[in-house]
Write a structure and sequence with these properties.
Helices cover 81% and strands 0% of the residues. With 129 residues, the protein is mainly alpha-helical. The N and C termini lie far apart (38 Å).
Length: 129
């Protein structure tokens, strides 16, 4: 496969990722009735995916196209840190979303005990790993 197809593929994936996640964040922010615990987790996952699809994928694409890392040592350190952090937070948020769905299905009457404060604590904890 030629390099032009890879550039087109990763560029398209990056644009679709950024646009889709921005739409998700905007809709959750603008509609008050969508501000639930489950949607809060989904909104933060969209934010993490926005960071992955934007600067991380674009930086990797540029470095593959030109054949070397153009960002210098500082951006290399930031890029590496963001890459690891966003992947770990995404995994943690996906686990929390799955647990939230499990609680909704198995314990529908106790689900009300999961408050926005506990959701905030879960999200802050996912960033502190």
């Amino acid at each position: 496969m030629s390099s032009h197809w890879w550039i087109l593929y990763f560029s398209t994936c990056s644009v679709l990722s950024v646009v889709g996640n921005l739409l998700t964040i905007c809709i959750l922010f603008l509609r008050k009735y969508l501000r639930t615990v489950s949607n809060c987790l989904i909104g933060h996952l969209a934010l993490v995916d926005l960071i992955i699809g934007g600067p991380i994928v674009i930086s990797n694409l540029i470095s593959v196209v030109i054949g070397h890392w153009p960002g210098g040592d500082e951006w290399c350190a930031v890029h590496s840190y963001l890459s690891v952090l966003t992947n770990m937070v995404a995994y943690t948020l996906l686990t929390l979303i799955a647990l939230d769905a499990c609680f909704i299905i198995h314990y529908p009457f106790r689900y009300r005990n999961i408050t926005p404060l506990s959701c905030t604590v879960y999200i802050v904890h996912s960033y502190s790993e």
